[in-house]
Design goal:
Number of helices: 10
Number of strands: 16
Structural class: alpha+beta
Radius of gyration: 26 Å
Largest sheet: 14 strands, antiparallel
Order of helices and strands: HHEEEEHEEHEEEHEHHEHEEHHEEE
Shape: globular
Oligomer: single chain
């Protein structure tokens, strides 16, 4: 009691000096505990849904209103339980509308509605069974290996070019209006490239958190957009692989387009003239390559994801544009015969053939 009387007798500024650090520590402890509880609950749900096992070291929150876990390991088992695959990630981060939203939902009233932003970001995910010589699409860009190696680039190949390989995955729902939400899926490798798909959904808010997964799956799909952003890979690839095959750097675009044509020709298709011209611009100059739907179709997001690629393209005709150019209709040509390989012109390492002809139109070709 005496301590309280002493405190009450203090000037206001002195009370603040004493009380503020204590209040700060209490709020910080509450926010940290909330982060731990949320992440543990999320891990439990994922384990129950997938049958996997998740381990992590630390939970955290930050002043952006993000919460997450660090040094994450997830092991998935086959139906027999005999074989497994383990993935690791540096961090798994849950994105919220911001620190104010997180603070209010921790200290005061926790909302049961889907927030304006809800996202998950996985930083540096990798399969522990892979090594620096495991091929893959680490740049997230289309046809990234064509003209460089026979199939796909490895981390060793990319490091030789001076290109990093640590990827980030992001999945998010962002409110546009009370009647529209954008669903995003992004693969990003800083210093290499980025691919992001955006689905515009007719989703009427408010939506209960417990129902949001089903509501998103059943929401009518208004449009689809796919963006490829070069983050430094293209120029390094063109210079490195041109030198590898004794070509001038300026000639690598022809070489690359020929190998793209050869790859597609083996599948009986080729890029339409306008499509090839747009892609050529991106493959030469980097920048941005955008594919977007023309018109709308009322199918659900879940139905769209499950459709074969050709049915997707039939339902949603695409436009393609590179670096702000006037868009062209995205088109395939079918019934294409595989391009011949000049037998006397194999590359020194047997990876690809020396170019004999350019199967793509020049940059100025009409759409």
């Amino acid at each position: 009691m005496q301590a309280w009387k002493t405190f009450a007798a203090m000037p206001m500024w002195k009370r603040f000096v004493y009380a503020a650090p204590i209040a700060f520590l209490c709020f910080w402890a509450a926010l940290s505990l909330q982060a731990k509880l949320w992440t543990e609950a999320a891990m439990l749900v994922v384990e129950m849904e997938t049958g996997g096992e998740i381990e992590s070291k630390n939970s955290f929150f930050n002043l952006k209103g993000e919460v997450g876990i660090e040094d994450v390991s997830m092991t998935m088992f086959d139906p027999t339980g005999e074989d497994s695959v383990t993935f690791k990630a540096d961090r798994v981060v849950v994105e919220t509308p911001g620190f104010g939203w997180y603070f209010w939902n921790t200290i005061f009233v926790s909302s049961e509605e889907l927030p304006d932003l809800l996202g998950v970001r996985i930083e540096n995910p990798r399969n522990v069974a892979t090594d620096p010589n495991t091929p893959g699409n680490y740049t997230n860009l289309p046809y990234d290996a064509m003209g460089c190696v026979a199939e796909m680039l490895t981390p060793t190949d990319l490091r030789a070019m001076g290109v990093p390989t640590q990827r980030q995955i992001r999945i998010a729902l962002e409110k546009v209006s009370d009647a529209e939400t954008t669903a995003r899926f992004r693969l990003r490798t800083e210093g290499a490239g980025e691919m992001e798909m955006k689905l515009a959904l007719e989703l009427k808010r408010p939506v209960k958190m417990e129902d949001f997964a089903q509501v998103v799956e059943e929401a009518p799909l208004k449009s689809v957009q796919l963006d490829f952003n070069d983050l430094g890979f293209t120029a390094k690839r063109n210079a490195y692989c041109a030198k590898k095959h004794n070509l001038p750097a300026a000639a690598f675009a022809d070489y690359h387009m020929q190998e793209v044509g050869r790859f597609l020709g083996a599948q009986g298709v080729s890029l339409g003239q306008g499509t090839a011209a747009q892609y050529r611009d991106f493959a030469t100059n980097g920048g941005t390559l955008q594919l977007r739907t023309a018109g709308t179709r009322k199918i659900t997001a879940n139905e769209f994801v499950e459709l074969p690629r050709m049915q997707k393209m039939q339902l949603f005709p695409l436009m393609i544009a590179a670096n702000g150019k006037a868009p062209a209709n995205f088109a395939w040509n079918y019934g294409v015969q595989p391009a011949p390989v000049a037998p006397a012109a194999a590359a020194a390492d047997g990876a690809v053939a020396i170019p004999v002809a350019n199967v793509a139109p020049p940059p100025g070709a009409a759409a």
